[in-house]
């Protein structure tokens, strides 16, 4: 049983600020990726496990894509952390396990529903054709939340073991690149195992390869409940170990990469399979997220106060997610129907963040004033 330690209010606030700030930085990078798609119209076709792999003509185009890769892993991980902290908080208030699980089941279904309605409609307003049904990141998150309820009572050791088994198991079970397109008529495979599909149904985010990060987040949340200071210190060490493991697996270009590198230069080395996430993709991106989280937790004074800015966005990630898609889609269609250069797109990205900040601040305050409304499921 994990108990919640007694902490000073200021220390507790700093620790939760690190989580919100990391989530805020993540959504800012997400906005960059989607500004690249809607405004610049230079977004890659996707780093899939088979088929054509993205080729970049210059470093800026590649780096613009690379820096956004930690987004989806970070969302999955932080969701798992939040589930652990939420469950512990509600147990202390007398909630039954059934009520806690029911809450997560509803939230998971809401995420899936938002993907199939609000979010998918936004993708249809973009410059590229969109399938009738798109399995995006919210379905992976919603499915991960639903399945994550099975592991809420496990300790960190068991959770880490399950996350590791899932990571290795999904890699070993994944079809090879030569099978690209041959299994796109298998619904369960597309929903749970690998990306691909047709004009009717396309899956970029199968559930099981992302579930491992939700479970890793659950383990980290349990560490936080036991001793948050040690948890954040571990995040630095674990993040560095992940990055080292990425380097070691990337050099031989075998297990952990799903498909061979597309080139022998530094871009080819860092250009990893995202759909679904290869083990090397997970190690690189989560290594980055864990190191940054540890650094954010160490912030104090002026630096800690500065983190309140990204934290405003990080406290309302779903609101930001839905709103920013329509904002950048509208900006692209209105002001840049033929696309822009990468450099000009960065100005649109920053302008969009400035427009979204007061909206997120307002929504965050509104949501905190209505904690028992239906908004608690979003």
Helix/strand/pairing class, anyone? mainly alpha
Q: What is the rounded distance between the termini?
A: 29 Å
Mean pLDDT: 94
Gyration radius over CA: 20 Å
Portion in helices: 55-70%
The major β-sheet equals:
3 strands, mixed
Query: Helical element count?
Result: 14
What are the secondary-structure elements, in order, as H or E?
HHHHEHHHEEHHHHHHH
| Low-pLDDT ranges | 1-14
Strand order of the largest sheet: 1-3-2
Strand residue content: under 5%
Q: Give the strand tally.
A: 3
| Overall 3D shape | globular
The number of domains is 1
Oligomer: single chain
Q: What does this molecule look like?
A:
- The chain is mostly helical and about 375 residues long.
- It has one domain.
- Helix content is about 65%, strand content about 0%.
- It has a three-stranded mixed sheet with strand order 1-3-2.
- A hairpin with a 3-residue loop joins strand 2 and strand 3 (about 200-205).
- The longest helix has about 45 residues, at about 205-250.
- The protein is globular and about 55 Å long.
- The two termini are about 30 Å apart.
- Residues about 1-15 have low confidence and may be disordered.
């Amino acid at each position: 049983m994990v108990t919640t330690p007694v902490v000073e209010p200021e220390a507790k606030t700093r620790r939760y600020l690190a989580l919100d700030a990391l989530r805020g930085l993540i959504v800012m990078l997400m906005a960059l990726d989607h500004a690249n798609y809607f405004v610049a119209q230079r977004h890659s076709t996707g780093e899939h496990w088979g088929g054509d792999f993205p080729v970049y003509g210059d470093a800026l185009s590649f780096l613009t894509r690379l820096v956004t890769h930690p987004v989806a892993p970070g969302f999955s991980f932080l969701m798992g952390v939040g589930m652990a902290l939420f469950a512990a908080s509600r147990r202390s208030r007398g909630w039954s396990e059934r009520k806690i699980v029911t809450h997560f089941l509803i939230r998971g279904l809401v995420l899936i529903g938002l993907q199939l309605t609000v979010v998918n409609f936004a993708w249809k307003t973009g410059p590229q054709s969109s399938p009738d049904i798109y399995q995006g990141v919210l379905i992976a998150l919603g499915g991960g939340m639903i399945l994550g309820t099975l592991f809420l009572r496990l300790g960190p050791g068991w959770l880490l073991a399950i996350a590791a088994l899932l990571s290795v198991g999904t890699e070993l079970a994944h079809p090879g690149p030569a099978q690209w397109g041959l299994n796109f008529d298998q619904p369960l495979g597309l929903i749970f195992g690998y990306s691909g599909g047709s004009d009717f149904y396309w899956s970029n985010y199968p559930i099981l390869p992302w579930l491992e990060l939700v479970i890793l987040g659950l383990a980290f949340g349990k560490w936080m409940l036991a001793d948050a200071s040690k948890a954040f210190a571990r995040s630095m060490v674990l993040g560095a170990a992940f990055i080292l493991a990425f380097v070691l697996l990337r050099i031989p270009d075998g297990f952990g990469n799903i498909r061979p590198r597309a080139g022998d230069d530094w871009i080819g080395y860092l250009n990893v399979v995202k759909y679904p996430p290869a083990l090397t993709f997970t190690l690189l991106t989560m290594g980055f997220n864990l190191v940054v989280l540890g650094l954010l937790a160490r912030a104090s004074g002026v630096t800690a106060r500065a983190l309140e800015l990204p934290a405003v966005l990080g406290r309302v990630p779903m609101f930001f997610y839905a709103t920013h898609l329509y904002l950048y889609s509208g900006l692209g269609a209105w002001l840049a129907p033929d696309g822009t250069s990468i450099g000009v797109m960065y100005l649109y990205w920053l302008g969009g963040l400035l427009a979204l900040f007061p909206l997120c601040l307002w929504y965050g305050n509104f949501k905190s004033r209505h904690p028992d409304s239906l908004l608690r499921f979003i």
